[in-house]
Amino acid sequence: SQLDSSALSDSILVLVDVKNYAETAVMLGKRYIETLMRSFHQVLLFEFSRAAAICRVDDNQLALLFLESDTVDSQRLARLTEKKVVIDGVQHTVLSTVGEMSLKHIVGSAASEIVTTAQIAVASAREKKLSYTHFDVKTTGEIANRQLILHELYGAMTSANELSVALQPKVNMLTGKLVGAEALIRWVRPDGKTVPPSKFIPVAEASGLINRIDLIVLRKTIAAIDALSKEGIRVPVSFNVTCSDLRNETFVEEVWNSLDSSSIEPSLLEIEITETQAMEDYDFINPILRQFRQRGIKISIDDFGTGYSSLSHITDLAVSTLKLDRSFVSKLSGDEKQAGVAVCEMVLRLANKFNFEVIAEGVENDEEKLELIGIGYKLAQGFYFAKPMALSEFIKWANKRSQ
Fold this sequence. Notes:
By secondary structure, the protein is α/β, with parallel strands linked by helices. The protein has helices spanning 5-8, 21-28, 30-47, 74-78, 111-127, 141-158, 197-207, 210-230, 243-247, 249-261, 275-280, 282-295, 311-316, 326-331, 337-353, 366-375, 391-401; strands at 12-18, 53-58, 61-66, 82-87, 90-102, 132-136, 163-172, 178-188, 194-195, 237-240, 269-274, 298-304, 321-324, 357-361, 379-381.
């Protein structure tokens, strides 16, 4: 709903983002993490009785609204970054990233847009490793820009050409042979300007459009596989899915329907899901991944090593490939080389132990490539080999490599 600008002229919104939510849910179970969130909510209700509202806005996020800025105790809010709660008589520590935002410049914006703006700001603070931060919506420009992107995105989704996929090669580092590709979404406006995914994907996620966009990527990926097959380029092409996609019956059915209505081999289609997403609701997600595997579709765990997977889950995970996260690859040519080598070796041993393929992503220079080969890696993708390309350019690139 629209919030009255006069009522918000002196208001403060505080967003509390609980850290390690997904990892805790995996290690200790859903019941524990839900009990912890309820206990944390009760602590907030008790300590901030002058707040106009205290509610949960996402799985791991709570929000507090103060209608008068002089009721805000910033020092007490800052202590929420490390807060004790009691569950069944046992004391636990909740670690959080906390953001405090003045709403005086919001001027009648939708509540969902205000919360989304706060979430983006807190995510930025979290990436900068800040536990507590103040941020201001200086003008309505950011929200207005997001609304404009959303409006244009609706139009792009109904256009035949604005949304497309670019293909980034996956190669055998020892032979230079093309072994696969990843389909990455691209948005080019009618005026020829490109909108980077970092600008529109968060808007799509916040507005609930991400499932529809992922369906578009699915169809375009299958069309690309079909076009490549006709050119004699028979390599698997992957695309990214989310937990939200897999929870959506329409999306899963569309995967089957798209395969049934096309002439491509299922083994040429590959699904990529991040480790954190795969572990977030393992009991629900893994059976769906297993269905895909039984049909012949390949499954990759993207950003492997950045989330938390128990060994028992890894052994039963319905995947074919682990993708070593680029953050570990980049350490191979930096000051943290020893740590990077150790992690890369560990992931490779794990992959070999459980018969997964393993591919390093984000390789950007010769040193990283040589270090990976020395450790025992064969497959990789990254700017060092090739940037994402339009389908026609990819076909030319692949044909040259095969000569």
